[in-house]
Design a protein that fits this description.
The complex is a heterodimer. Chain A is mostly beta strands. Chain A has one helix spanning 73-84, and strands at 10-14, 22-23, 27-31, 37-41, 52-57, 60-67, 87-94, 100-113, 123-130, 135-136. In chain A, the strands form two sheets. In chain A, strands 1, 2, 3, 6, 7, 8, 9 and 10 form an eight-stranded antiparallel β-sheet that branches. A two-stranded antiparallel ribbon of chain A has the order 4-5. By secondary structure, chain B is an alpha+beta fold. Helices cover 23% and strands 47% of the residues of chain B. Chain B contains three helices and six strands; from the N terminus they run ααβββαβββ. Chain B has helices at residues 3-11, 15-21, 72-86, and strands at 25-27, 38-50, 56-69, 89-93, 96-111, 121-132. In chain B, strands 1-2-3-6-5-4 form a six-stranded mixed β-sheet. In chain B, helix 2 runs antiparallel to helix 3 (72-86). Chain B is elongated. The two termini of chain B are 13 Å apart. Classes of the chains: A mainly beta, B alpha+beta. Chain A binds chain B through residues 3-5, 7-8, 95, 97, and chain B through 56-58, 88, 90, 97, 99-100, 131, 133.
Amino acid sequence: MDKQIGLGTLVKVDHDADTVFTTVACVRNLTPPKRSKNQADATCIDDTLEKTLSGLEAASDFAFEQFWDPTDSNCTMIDTLLTNNTEVNWQLVFPFGTPITAAFSGRVIDTTPSQVDNNTVIARSVMVRRDSAITYS
Amino acid sequence: MTVAEALTSYLQGVTAVTTLVGRKIFQAPAHELELPPYVVFMRSGRQGERDIEGNASVEQTYFDVESRGLTQQTAEAVGDAIRTALHGTRGTWGSLRVQGAFVDDQDDDYLPIPPGKSEAEVSVLSRVQIITG
């Protein structure tokens, strides 16, 4: 198993559907989208332990924090995706010895400014709702 | 190849550093007759996480890297070049895969006429973390 730190991980988005992925610059950290399945209750009245059946895969979110400059294309691109509710293709490229790309589609659903104080860089968090399966290559 | 050998080899390949110190980058001790500016470093720590079966994960090696010069300006210039060369970099150094190198801190020191020398030296100490694995 290749054990890898996060330095060099890339967030890429095909923001204008031209099949060209743009790297979102100045990302501070990210949390990849999780996978989980909805659990339907299947507990009978005489069961002594709760039972569930796996249902559909649940929607999930991918979140990242980026330094914020409202005039910079890295930020305006995200703002436009949020405004237009556009579903676009995303890639997360992990810097393993042989890089691994996680690909999925999703919509920007939230941008939350981080607390602003006198000694840290102004930043915001961005949340993307995953709308497709994740494929790895 | 040890991490120290890889660090030496990497820094000796960075033009911004060698322009200032040539190939005078040493793992301690530096030759006492070495004329400043030069770089001397020593390992200050080594940590490596293990999984529950005892298998190795990535390893962090820490170095104190001293950039020495006869003046504050010279030592600082070398220290800045070291920081620029190392902070946030990654790649293959010699035969070693470096996942990340970081300069965690930097501070100045004054060495009143070190042993074997005739003049005082100024040192800019960079605390460097190198992650391999």
